[in-house]
Amino acid sequence: MNTLFPIFVKAEKLHILIVGGGYVGLEKLTALLGNAPDTRTTLVAPEIRDEIRDIARQSPNVQLVEEPYTPAHLDDKDLVIVGTNDKAVNRQVQADCKARRILVNVADTPDLCDFYLSSVVKKGDLKIAISTNGKSPTFAKRFREVLEEILPDSLQETLDNLTAIRNQLKGDFVQKMEKLNEITKVLR
Ligand SMILES: C[C@@]1(CC(=O)O)C2=NC(=C\c3[nH]c(c(CCC(=O)O)c3CC(=O)O)Cc3[nH]c(c(CC(=O)O)c3CCC(=O)O)/C=C3\N/C(=C\2)[C@@H](CCC(=O)O)[C@]3(C)CC(=O)O)/[C@H]1CCC(=O)O
Ligand SMILES: NC(=O)c1ccc[n+]([C@@H]2O[C@H](COP(=O)([O-])OP(=O)(O)OC[C@H]3O[C@@H](n4cnc5c(N)ncnc54)[C@H](O)[C@@H]3O)[C@@H](O)[C@H]2O)c1
């Protein structure tokens, strides 16, 4: 059974730590900023890829710390993603996060993750997150591509119209809900 509970996090209200500055650090930083460009992010690693340095130069909220991880790096952090090439370090970061009740993603060890990143389909305000329960990230990526292809750009207009109607509707909660369900029947 897939027991993952999906939520949409307001990352720009958080301070996120990424441990590791290699390919995985780059992939996770790109995924984060691709959704929430202004997220306050600190990335710590003794060696940091040039692509990450380029991103940091263009993103005032991304801070790079060029040194090995220590528990002090967790101070004031809300969420942590760890992807170093040293399994013992990854494990240590996970244990330190657990002790502080900070949610942590250990990219190469699903069993140690409190949450997974997902493949993300974006069409204006519509956002669809895809997970395979860790079974095949490649499937998630391919399915994202399928959905990106078939969802029309006009979806944003539909959402804008529905927002306008939603804001104009009078009556109590149940009456509004009935009206909105009626109007959107054609979408089924
Ligand atoms: C969706 C996406 C989001 C993102 O990262 O932003 C994501 N992985 C992506 C791509 C990708 N990752 C890998 C490949 C190579 C091919 C392959 O292995 O399939 C590709 C494909 C590619 O890059 O083309 C390698 C890999 N990934 C994990 C392991 C460890 C393991 O499974 O044990 C290994 C083996 C490492 C090794 O062998 O050393 C683990 C995880 N990867 C997850 C998410 C979480 C589960 C998501 C779910 O529930 O489906 C989870 C559990 C944890 C996490 O990372 O959060 C992003 C697609 C974004 C997009 O394009 O839409
Ligand atoms: N979940 C995923 O999506 C995914 C995908 C590919 C690989 N992986 C796994 O993730 C791991 C990392 O892969 P990579 O390609 O990014 O490696 P890499 O060699 O490119 O980078 C490793 C990074 O870890 C840093 N590091 C090492 N010791 C550290 C410490 N004590 N404190 C802080 N940072 C430290 C290095 O400085 C470097 O920046 C591998 O084990 C790989 O198998 C996971």
TrEMBL record:
The keyword Transit peptide does not apply. It catalyses: precorrin-2 + NAD(+) = sirohydrochlorin + NADH + 2 H(+). Pfam families: NAD_binding_7, Sirohm_synth_M. Residues 124-148 form the Siroheme synthase central domain. It is an enzyme of class 1 (oxidoreductase). The keyword Oxidoreductase applies. GO terms for biological process: siroheme biosynthetic process. Pathway: Porphyrin-containing compound metabolism; siroheme biosynthesis; sirohydrochlorin from precorrin-2: step 1/1. InterPro entries: Met8-like, NAD(P)-bd_dom_sf, Sirohaem_synthase_central, Sirohaem_synthase_N. GO terms for molecular function: ferrochelatase activity; precorrin-2 dehydrogenase activity. It comes from the Bacteria. Coiled coil: none annotated. Its EC number is 1.3.1.76. Keywords: NAD, Oxidoreductase, Porphyrin biosynthesis. This is precorrin-2 dehydrogenase.
